[in-house]
Design a protein that fits this description.
Immunoglobulin-like; 2 domains; 5-stranded antiparallel sheet; 4-stranded mixed sheet; 1 helix
């Protein structure tokens, strides 16, 4: 009778060892997946910064009237700009944001008219590029203009 109990004990110990291996494998697998995802996010951010280093805008002229803001923007770098995001601050520092879908090729200047309200004190222009159906907001290529004159 003792031999039968001893045989069952061996099987139980093997089952427990296998269960321990499966649990440890699951824990290591989850840790590894999180680590790889974190590394890929970091790599993506670095790649985005590298893409945006090839994007640049320059404000050639800027003036406002009572209803609109008139801007001439030049693409000063190599990558085509597909959209421009405008951040406005009026003389009371109330913020407003508008997007304009426009294609500006390298070296080209585009004339843009944006409807607005009130008198603006500052304009912030952020270029946006589309690559592989993805938007890249190039915040490191922003340009600012204060003291906007009347047209």
């Amino acid at each position: 009778m003792n031999n039968k109990k001893r045989g069952v004990t061996v099987y139980i110990s093997w089952v427990l060892v296998l269960l321990l291996v499966v649990i440890l494998s699951a824990i290591l697998y989850n840790w590894y997946i999180k680590r790889v995802q974190s590394s890929s996010e970091t790599l993506k951010e670095i790649t985005d910064k590298e893409l945006c280093n090839s994007v640049g805008v320059n404000i050639e002229s800027l003036c406002q009237n009572t209803q609109s803001l008139n801007i001439n923007i030049t693409n000063t770098r190599d990558i085509t700009i597909n959209q421009v995001v405008f951040g406005f601050s009026d003389i009371y520092n109330d913020p407003e944001t508008k997007k304009k879908n426009i294609t500006i090729e390298s070296g080209e200047t585009a004339r843009i008219e944006i409807l607005k309200q009130g008198t603006l004190g500052q304009v912030e222009i952020t270029p946006v590029i589309f690559i592989d159906n993805k938007d890249y907001y190039c915040k490191n290529s922003k340009v600012y203009k204060n003291n906007i004159k009347q047209c």
